[in-house]
Specification:
- The chain has 293 residues and is of the alpha/beta class.
- Helices cover 26% and strands 22% of the residues.
- It contains seven helices and ten strands.
- The strands form two sheets. The chain has an eight-stranded mixed β-sheet with strand order 1-2-4-3-5-6-9-10, sandwiched between helices. It has a two-stranded antiparallel sheet with strand order 7-8.
- The N and C termini lie far apart (38 Å).
């Protein structure tokens, strides 16, 4: 079971190229990849990162080409990023992948015909969570790094997403923890935070609840909102039982407190995904048009 991505809209006639399996990094002997979609005509010089993630499960075959098409129609070059997937990798490890992907795109921005300072990021559900983390918990570049990719920051210009988790320590109501339990009991693997045993060097899952909550705070975007955060748009159904709309409301309130441009679009009676969601892709595109100029 995974947090579902929106169903695909009807296909458009836009012509584009797709460069597949571009390696943006390696870890544990594995290659991390993205597919790059480029409109053949009228490219606008701006890039959009799409987080291919549902329930923090990520796979190339789940790349939502039809959802990407409206962005290509607008002239965006789209980077469909596949991250280290659960059940093998946890959310903290996934976040490392996303930082790496953004940095890689910036280093190669000229090659891809995009402005490194005008990157947007989008996703649905878990992909929305990762998008908000990138918009708020971005990392500076390391000028002393030997790898040129690591010299770049992982900051993005704008975020737009569907029904994202934002606070795992207050999930649905104050004080309700959902770190692979409760409402998210069917999503335990990405929350099996681990450390190495000092004697054996073996991997040991952290069981202490206070330590788990401390890690949970580091993967909740709401705790990283600041005045430098990227402008954010969230579209959320008010009947969503998997990711309560309270999650969107909490972070929108924090954005407003910090003076960050933000908007919450509420879909009345909608659950975790809804019929006709493809029409809402244009709302995301409008947001990126405004905040990546």
């Amino acid at each position: 079971m995974t947090l579902p991505l929106p169903p695909a809209p009807a296909q458009s006639s836009v012509e584009f190229t797709r460069k597949e399996d571009v390696i943006y990094g390696r870890k544990y002997g594995l290659a991390m990849t993205m597919d790059i979609f480029t409109p053949k005509e009228k490219a606008n010089g701006r890039g959009l990162i799409y987080c291919v993630s549902g329930g923090w499960f990520s796979a190339k075959q789940n790349t939502p080409v039809a959802l990407i098409r409206p962005m290509l129609d607008r002239g965006y070059t789209v980077f469909a990023v596949v991250h280290g997937s659960q059940p093998k990798f946890t959310i903290p490890e996934v976040l490392e992948d996303m930082h790496r992907a953004v940095r890689f795109i910036k280093v190669h921005a000229k090659e891809y015909g995009v402005d490194p300072e005008k990157l947007g990021i989008a996703g649905g559900s878990a992909g929305g969570h990762l998008s908000l983390m990138q918009g708020n918990a971005f990392l500076p570049g390391n000028p002393k790094a030997t790898d040129p990719v690591e010299k770049e920051s992982s900051r993005v210009a704008a975020v737009a997403c569907f029904f994202p988790p934002t606070d795992f320590l207050n999930y649905g109501e104050e004080g309700k923890v959902a770190l692979g339990g409760g409402t998210l009991k069917n999503f335990r693997p990405p929350f099996d935070f681990w450390e190495r045993d000092k004697e054996t060097n073996g991997l040991v899952v952290i069981a202490d609840e206070e330590r788990r909550k401390a890690i949970g705070k580091t993967i909740s975007p709401i705790y990283f909102v600041k005045k430098e955060s990227a402008p954010a748009l969230i579209i959320h159904g008010d009947a969503d039982k998997l990711v309560p709309i309270q999650q969107a409301e909490l972070i929108i309130a924090k954005y407003r407190e910090k003076g960050v441009p933000c908007e919450l679009v509420v879909k009345k009676g909608a659950a975790h995904g809804w019929a006709g969601i493809e029409k809402d892709i244009t709302i995301l595109a409008d947001w990126f048009d405004k905040y990546t100029k």
